[in-house]
Structure formats: structure tokens, C-alpha cells
Amino acid sequence: MAATLAPERTNLADAFDDDTAAHLAELEARTIYILREAYARVAPLGMLWSIGKDSNALLWMARKAFFGRVPFPLIQLDTGMELPEVYAFRDEIVPAWGLDLRVEHCPPEEDMDPTLPPATRAAARKTEGLRSVLARDKYRGVMVGIRRDEQATRAKERVFSPRALDGAWDFRNQPPEFWDQYKTDFPEGVHVRIHPLLHWSEIDIWRYTKAEGIPVVPLYFARDGKRYRSLGEKNITFPVASDAATIDEIIAELMVTRVSERAGRTMDKETEDSFERLRSSGYM
Amino acid sequence: MTTSLNPMKIVVVGHVDHGKSTLIGRLLHDTGSLPDGKLEELTALSERRGMPLEWSFVLDAFQAERDQAITIDTTQINFASGQRPYVIIDAPGHREFLKNMVSGAASAEAAVLVVDVAEGMREQSRRHAFLLHLLGLRQIVVVVNKMDLVGHDEARFRTVEEQVRAYLADIGLSPDAIVPVAARAGENLAARADAMPWYDGPTLVEALDALSTAAAPLERPLRLPIQDVYKFDERRILVGRVEAGSFRVGDELVFSPSNRRARVRTIEAWNAPVAKLEARAGEVVGVTLDEQIFAERGDVASHEASAPKLTNVFRATLFWLAERPLAPGDTLKLKVGPDEASVTVEAIENAIDTQTLGRAPTDAVGHNEVAEVVLRTREMLSLDDHRANPAGGRFVLVDGFDTVAGGVVSTEGYPDQREAMRVKGTNLYEVDHLLSAQGRAFRNGHRGGVIWMTGLSGAGKSTLAMRVEQRLFAKGYQAFVLDGDNVRRGLNADLGFSPDDRAENIRRVGEVAALFAEAGMIVVTAFISPYRSDRDRARAAAGDAFHEVHVAADLATCEGRDPKGLYRRARAGEIGDFTGVSAPYEPPQAPELVVDTSRQSIEACVDAIVAYVDEPLAVRARAVGA
User: Fold this and answer.
1) Has residue B103 been placed in a domain?
2) Which of A95, A207, B101, B419 fits a 20 to 30 Å CA distance from A71?
């Protein structure tokens, strides 16, 4: 595998027509604004890094926001079950970009709520891993690269989303959030999930990745008629049928597909509310 | 095939049960925007619950919402017409969820207002429309829904259409289209309805496609609120988002409220192919300056000629989201862009009834109500009128940990305090006088002082001033009156009566009065001087020699006297910004003396003032000799 660590300098205007370039520039500006708000108003602050395409794009924009330096630690919630290509990518990027990475080893599956269906239980390990990071390192803010278009419960998120000490999300009583004024004052014991990518779509991320030359794990590109559209643990994530072997082909595929992005994620659909239960209890 | 990538954000609002979620669910289906299998999933889900296919389940993703069949929070969903993609925001109609509706609607570029043809405009339809306007939305498409339930009757549609048009006109909105639809059946959403041949306007999708996406406000004066200052390396980089206008490397920027200036040396960017020379509205930027001036989060950079207004008091229209009512005297945190300040509610002027649009005086703002208020901060703020620059003229209020209000700023009626704060000369040196104030006081037999009268027009300030001057002179005081007659014709002949000019008028009078006092004179001033900030400045100029006298006749009395016919002309609209009628009067909070000419005789008032002057200003021999 070969992640491109020193991409050629490009700019959005060269990569796409004016309308697309303007759209991506607008999305990027919004994300950078949110990153800077978080850094100005919340400390200590960390960023979850799943090493997938979304959190790589987010990391890239953090480097832009802070002029090449990422001024907070990255946290990887590691279940030990990522695909080998993911670990290889991580180990190449971290020294090359001078990142402060903290790997959190998540507790075993046996410790999870036994009433959850199997794949959901496997995913819940990350919730527990995050909980112990927060309890130990006292982060007041954690940035997470989720998007509204990924999944219906994520569509309801705020950009600054406060969580109780146990990580629980009270979606019935979310703070008002308008005119880019975010909730940045919290009582003791509350932390905030910051979602700088909420307004991006899957195809936006790929277009941006292409324009900026952001490296991605090669598992996204089709081999033998299959590719990963969304990366998760190897035991609960599966590749989807696809011949898209380049970013351009992925973009072309997304223009016509009507299969949802998380189709290869078992945990989303074991029961009607499995993903909602995960999120209410603190999943990303 | 979609021709544009840039999605338009639309919000869907309306009264509960008028069919918002159904409309969205059906729209997604009819434009081919549902993922494969979703329709089957929903059909199965509906059958399990023993009900017909419920289109709103597309959006109501949460278990809790399905059980209650109410949309609790805002949801964002993408769909595409043949022309462009859309992000649609469904906003809950229930009154108690107003904060969620506001959260969804504030980021939208256009609104779809759903009105049930059988019910017409209801409480939430009106409230939402009013708030959309307050939030800054100007594009609105109205959908008159459930036409199938009234037999697709044109007359029923026209009645509701008229009602909607009238209300929107009253709040200053003109709908881009009013479309009769039957959302459940998909009529006039994406496809034209055969059942309504009398309607020749656009379908909902056609109406949406005709709307324009918001253009960045490039033509407005530059506003760059500073979000943060980074010193990661040898560079000191100020970052922020250009909210309006543009600037270039080399431009001189003025930072408000400090009034400090510096030129843009570089526009910084990481991994940029070429050095950036210009930044425009909508961009997030980092700049370095040619001078290391002090600047911090919350400052606003602009060009000199078109800087924002500086004030510590302003009018606002706000919506109140907290359970407990807002009352005068409440202190909250104000956030305008990245700026924060402690703010006190000086007055609650009117409650606005969003149903009737009537205004009524009130002393508290209840949950989810809209009101006009006056807010005051201790420190100077840089503000714009929201009509001139939305980003610099809107704010939220935070109480404890919670956002409890949003509002828009009106800068009418209060002066810009920028000029008054500025010392223009840069090569000024204080020269020590060889004479002391004590020596002057000994010669005169009294100390110098400023007797500053403030009160409404017609309160009797000039009459009192002349009588006081006469009495003081008779008692051996060196006394002199400054009033409109002797100041406006000479020193201030260049000033008119706008709030800004009035503020400058008072600033000059305050400085001149301070000089008189320093010279040993007792100067009596007779100016309405309605703004507390202006009088505070006059007090600062004269220091301990300043004595504020509130000539406190009430408005009705003054208006009844109306010696120059000014109130009558102000009421007739012939005079603008008239204190007490169309501009505020801020009474002193702790005046040294209050006289009330509506209750006391002129003679009694003069006695009170002269007696007051005798107390702190007369120099008794032992005091001077001591």
C-alpha cells in the first residue's frame, strides 16, 4: 500500500468547475470555522480519528485551520479488529504529519450490554473505550467526523452537542443552535461532542479528497468487484459490490447509487432501533 | 441529471399536523431520492403498526417520534430536483419545540410554509412565518396542503391564499409562490396534478428551482470579526471569517472597539499553491499585520471609512426561549459573532403578538414570546444594524449555561460613540499649570463646578438655568450658562440633530464646561442630553467638579407645555429623532440632585439648586486657609 503523503499542491478551482469548487470551498470554510471555535472555546480538546475517509478529511482541514500544526491530540478507539491496511496507513501518516496520537484499547466484547444484538454489541466497545478516555483524561470537548447524511439519527445532531458524564445523548432536549452561536458553556461533568463535518455529504468528501489530494486507506478502491464504502471493524463491516477503483470512479458510482452508505455496516440494522440505542448511550 | 452541486438549504415549517413531514417524505420519493429498499421498509413498518403507509416515517427516525407521531427535533435530509440538490430541514410545529424550529430554520436560505387548506393560517403558521423573517429569511414558498380533502376546490384554495398573502405582507414578506398540493397523493409536488386544472402556477419543485442561492455579501462594507489569535511559530496570525465585503494585502484595517489600526501584511494559508492577496466574504482567513497592535477574539476589523457603530446601548427585537420570563434589570451574556459581553436589560418596551402583529407595552417577556427591548453593556460593542449587515447585527443571549434568546439589533435612536472615544491629536502633551485650583478658589471665594441639568424638552432647564445663574451671581459666584442658544450658533454650528450630531454636541459642551470649571467658574448647562453615555463622558471630563441635576418633569407635563410647538411637530412626524417621542430619554441613575418642575414651583426648584451649590462649592475661609 502506498498512501500519498506529500500530495501535489492543488486548489479547488483547478480540480472542478466553478460551481463545485465554490461549494467545496464553502463546506471547508464552515468546517474550519467550527474547528477554530472549538479550539478557542473548549479545553482540553481532542479529536477522534477513525482513519476513515471522513476523519482524514477532517484532519486535513484541521491542518489548514491551524496552519500545518494540529494543536490537540488525536484519539484512536482501537478494538484491535481494524483491517490490517488501516493500521499500516495509520503508522505511516502519524510520523509523517507529526501527529500526537493516543491509542485507546477498548474493553472486550464480553463486558458489553448483553441485551444488544451481536454486531451492535461489538460496536459498543468503542463507546466504552471513549468513556474511559473521557473519564481518565478529562477532555471537555471531543471532535468527531460524523455527517448528517450518513444515518437518520445523525441528521438530528447539533454541531456542539453536550453529553452527560456517562456519554448519554438526550436527543429530546438539545440546545438551540443558530447563527453559528454554539453552546460552549457547560456545568462540571458535561463534555461536548463537536461535529465539524455534519454538513458534508459522502460525495462532497470524495470530491474534496480528490481536489486536495488527501491520502486514504486503499480499501476504498475496488478489488475483484468489491470495495469498502465505509470502514469499520473487520468482524462487523463488509465490502459492497463495486468496480470503482479510483476516486473519479467512486464519485461516478455515488452519482447514481441508491444504496445507503452504511449498507455494509451490520450494526445499523440488526433491529429497528439498534443504531439509535448505540448513539443514545454515547456512540459516535 | 443534476446540473448544480451547490445545494440550497430549505426549511419546512407550519402548524402541527398540517403535513410537513408527509410532504417531505413524499417529495423524497417522487424525486427518486429515497435509497433502494426504504419504501419497502416503511411499508412493512406501517403494516406492523397496522396503519396505512406513513410518509413522515422517512424523517421521523427516532423510535420515540414514531410512537408519539410528532417531530421532536429538526432533521436534515438531502434530495435533488432535476436542477439542483436541496438540503431540507424539517422543523417541528409544536410550540414547545420552538428552539428546535429556530435551530433548523436559521441556517436555511428559503422556507416552505405548509398550511392546511381546511384550517388556514393557525397559531404556529403565523409564529413560524414571523420568526423566519426575524431570523433573516426572505424567500418563502407557501404550500396549501390537503387539497384532496376539500375536493380540490379552487375557492377554498383562494380563500387561504388571500389570508396567507395578507399576513406575510404585514410582516414584510412576499411569497415567491403559493402552491395548492395534496402531499399524501403527491399532487403538485414534483408532478402536476390533473385534479386541479384551474391552477396554472408552478409545482412545488418548480417553485423551489426558481429560488436563488444566497450570494456572499461582497458589496457590503468589510466586516472581519476576529475569532482567535495564533502564535504557533514566529508569525502572529489573526483568524476569522470575512462576514461581509473584502480586503487586500496592504489595506489599512481599523479594529473595533479599540480603534487601533494596522495594515495587512500577509493573508496566510497552509498548503496553498499561490500566495493569497485578497480575501472575500464567506472565506475563513488568517492575516498578519505590519504592526503588533493588541487585538483579540471579538474585535471587528473593517475599513476606516465604513466601520461598524460603537455603542454600549441599543434596541433589539428578540425571541425568548427560556421557561422563566425575561425582566428589566436581568443580566445575561451577549454573544455577537465571536464577541461576548455582559448585558443588562435596561427596558422592555413592547411585546409583539405574532398572531395580530400588535405591539403592547409590557414589563416581562414570557416563554417563546417576541419583544422589543433596550440592552446596555458596560463595555463598548461594535454593532451593525441587522438590516445593513445581518452577521454584525444579530446576537444570542446566554443565561448560565443555556442559550435563551436570539435577537436582531436596531441601531436607530442611539448615537455612534466612535468619534467621542477618539483623541485625534497624537502630539499632545499635558502642560502643568503654575496656578493651582486652590489658588483660583481662594481668589473667587468658591470652587469651579459644572451644574449639569438634564431632562426632557419643556422640563424647564433653560428657565431654571437663567434664574440660577442670576441668583448665584447676586451671591458673589462667578456663574455662566451654556445652552443651545450660545453653543449651537458658534462652537457647534456645524452640527445637526441626528443621534450622532447630538452626541457630538454634548461631548463638546461637556469639554467646554470642564474647562470653565477648571478656570474657576460655575457653569450651568441646559441640554436635554438624553443619553447616559454622553453624560458619563461629560462627568469624566470634569471629574469631581461635575454635578448632575435631573430636571424631572414627566413627558405628559412637558408635552402639555410645549413652549416651542416641538412636540406637536414631532408627533406629526415633521421632526425626527425627537427625545421622548421618537428617540429615547435615559434618566440619570444617581443624580446629585433631582428637581421636579411638574410638582414644585420654579422658585422652589431654583432655591434647591442654589442651596445645593452653596454646599459643596462655596469656599469657606477656614477651608481655604487650612
Assistant:
1) yes
2) A207
A-B CB pairs within 8 A amount to 141
Buried b (16+ CB within 10 A) or exposed e, B183-202: bbebbbbbeebebbeebeeb
Q: Which of B277, B306, B335 is the last residue of a domain?
A: B306
Cβ–Cβ below 8 Å for A178 and B103: yes
Whole-number pLDDT of residue B69:
41
Domain boundaries, given as residue ranges, for chain A: 16-201+266-280
User: What pLDDT score was predicted for residue B624?
Assistant: 33
| Distance of alpha carbon A247 from alpha carbon A230, whole angstroms | 14
Whether B302 and B449 map to the same domain: the answer is: no
Residue A6: the pLDDT is 41
Domain holding B143: CATH number? 3.40.50.300
CB-nearest partner of B232 from A69, A149, A260: A69
* Minimum Cα–Cα distance from A207: chain B residue: B5
Check which CATH number belongs to the domain holding B254 and give it: 2.40.30.10
Inside any domain, residue B16:
yes
Contact A33 B241 (CB under 8 A): yes
Domain boundary among B288, B306, B324: B306
The verdict on a CB contact (< 8 Å) between B103 and A276 is no
Helix (H, G, I), strand (E, B) or coil at B264: strand
Residues of B in contact with A39 (CB under 8 A): 228
Inter-chain touch A176–B270, beta carbons under 8 Å: no
Q: Beta strand pairing status for B331-336 and B339-352?
A: antiparallel
Chain B residues near residue A150 by CB distance under 8 angstroms: none
pTM for this one?
A: 0.78
Tens digit of each residue's pLDDT (9 = 90 or more) over A6-18: 444 445 555 567 7
- C-alpha A70/C-alpha A81 separation (Å) is 27
Q: Which of B73, B227, B241 sits opposite A171 (nearest CB)?
A: B73
B184 and B125 belong to one structural domain: yes
Q: What percent of chain B has pLDDT over 90?
A: 53
Same domain, B53 and B91: yes
CA neighbor of B193 nearest in space, from B232, B118, B143, B132: B143
State mean pLDDT over B372-391.
91
B244: DSSP letter = B
User: B624 and chain A: CB distance < 8 Å anywhere?
Assistant: no
Q: B539, B524, B516: which is closest to B605 by C-alpha?
A: B524
Among A93-102, A250-259, B185-194, the minimum mean pLDDT is found in: A250-259
What CATH number was assigned to the domain covering residues A16-201+266-280? 3.40.50.620
CB-CB neighbors (< 8 A) of B276 in chain A:
none
Asked if B398 lies within 8 A of A179 by C-beta distance, the reply is no
Residue A269 has pLDDT above 60, yes or no: yes
Whether residues B399 and B438 fall in one domain: no
Same domain, B568 and B478: yes
Q: Do B4 and A185 touch (CB under 8 A)?
A: no
Which grid cell sits at A145?
467526523
| Residues of B whose CB is below 8 A from A183 | 401-403
Asked if A272 and B230 come within 8 Å (Cβ–Cβ), the reply is no
SS3 state of residue B276: strand
Residue B215 lies in a domain: no
**Calpha distance B242→B253 (Å, rounded):** 13
Domain that holds residue B129: 8-209
| DSSP state letter for B340 | E
Q: What ipTM describes this predicted complex?
A: 0.90
On average, the pLDDT of chain B sits at: 87
- Asked if the structure places residue B394 within a domain, the reply is yes
